[in-house]
Each structure stands twice: as C-alpha cells, then as structure tokens.
C-alpha cells in the first residue's frame, strides 16, 4: 500500500540485540499527515539501519510511503504494525496530483504537445 503526506514527527530511534541471532537491530517511527479535506495521520516504522540511512527521512519533507500492514497478538490483545519498505521524496509542487499524473506531465514548455486547432470550414453544416 502507498500513502503520501508530509512528515510531521520523528520519534526517537530504538536499537537492541536480537536474542535469536545476536545481531544488532535499529528501528525508528515517523508520522505523516495527508493533504485531504479531512487530513489523516499515520505512524509507520522503518526497520534497519541501512533503510534509515537510505531513506534519510526528515520532518517537513513530502514523502510517498510504501508499507505493509500486519497484526500480532500479545497476551490476548492484538496490535497493528505498519512497516515501511520504501520511502520516496515527492516534489511539493505536485501536491493534489496523483503520482502517475505528476510523472506524465511534461517538465518544460518545449516538451509539451501543441494543442489541436479546430478545422475551419466554409459551409455551415454541423456534420
């Protein structure tokens, strides 16, 4: 799933050592807010030092987050987990446009296709 929004919060980084493998792990949570008429907020986790470094997420950035949702049970209660597997920066000038529409628009005037001019006819028939 994907969701686009502005990063409004960065929570403290957490780290530890896996009991199973003995390897170190690192995770950090972020919160984004959408730009709808009634904005929604979503907290998501980025797991892994390599992903944290690669994504370089900062408060105030406009991002498109690709994520998986999973739930797990702990002591009879269920909890959702939203884990990002890709985070891409979005140009703030394209707000309101769908990501596919923003890519399809030409970047310069010279790339734009000329608009078709209506054909002028001497007769006044509608067909």
How would the blueprint of this fold be written?
Elements: E1 2-10, E2 14-17, E3 24-33, E4 41-47, H1 49-55, E5 62-74, E6 77-89, H2 99-104
Antiparallel strand pairs: 1-3, 1-5, 2-3, 3-4, 5-6
Poorly predicted tracts of residues = 102-115
CATH class: Mainly Beta
| Average of per-residue pLDDT values | 83
CATH topology heading: OB fold (Dihydrolipoamide Acetyltransferase, E2P)
How does the overall form come out from the CA principal axes? globular
What percent of the residues sit in helical stretches (DSSP H or I)?
Answer: 10-25%
Largest sheet: 6 strands, antiparallel
Beta fraction? 35-45%
Tell me the count of domains: 1
- Give the structural class: mainly beta
Q: Provide the CATH superfamily.
A: Nucleic acid-binding proteins
CATH architecture identity: Beta Barrel
Structure overview:
It is a single chain. This protein has 127 residues and is mainly β. Helix content is 10%, strand content 44%. Strands 1, 2, 3, 4, 5 and 6 form a six-stranded antiparallel beta sheet that branches.
Quick overview of this protein structure:
With 127 residues, the chain is mainly beta.
Throw out a few tags for this protein.
127 residues, OB fold (Dihydrolipoamide Acetyltransferase, E2P), globular, mainly beta, 6 strands
